[in-house]
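User: I'm putting together a teaching handout on how sequence relates to shape, and I'd like one worked example. Could you take Metalloprotease TIKI from Pogonophryne albipinna, show the sequence you're using, and then write out its predicted structure as tokens right after it?

Assistant: Happy to. First the sequence, then the structure tokens directly below it.
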Amino acid sequence: MRGTLGAFIQSCVILLVRADQWRLKDSANCELNKKQTDLNSFLWTIKRDPPSYFYGTIHVPYTRVWDFIPENSKQAFQESNIVYFELDLTDPYTISALTSCQLLPQGENLQDVLPRDIYRRLKRHLEYVKLMMPSWMTPDQRGKGLYADYLFNAIAGNWERKRPVWVMLMVNSLTEADIKTRGVPVLDLYLAQEAERMRKRTGAVEKVEEQCHPLNGLNFSQ
């Protein structure tokens, strides 16, 4: 479920890292390092004592990008003692609040707010996805105990109670390619889990409300 909700958050997130009393090699100045492993990095240094680091991530399975992340970024994360994420996806309250904010006001149903033809098309599409999902899943997923019915309910459960914008994001993630990567945490969630495992202090720079209210404020034409 955490991976599912993580994918709903906006596609570009930030990670703020505050490090211990140390400095990365050549990271305290703005000169471009000639080593390829140190190029194309989304890591920025905030010059202070101790230094802090500002890092950009993206909501894709971490396995797709991990091998391409420069070593200086990985080293900054490893040696930092405090890590701030966009949202704290390891906090049960965050997950609960994200779920609640996606719902229509009490008593309303998606069928009541969508045009009839769009609602019917949506319902048929979700029935198609549910039918196809077993064939989209990989043997590795099944070996880990991840079953199609459970996964469909985790992603699309209670869809008739969700606001249209969240249903749109949900539908966009219900593709064969996306389903095949379910069970693998997105990059920022993976880093949050690693930070917990390493007993780092963690926090968030945004509140759930700051993510939800702009999306929930869109009118139907938007």
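A couple of points you could highlight for students: Confidence is low (pLDDT under 50) at residues 1-33. The longest strand covers residues 12-19.
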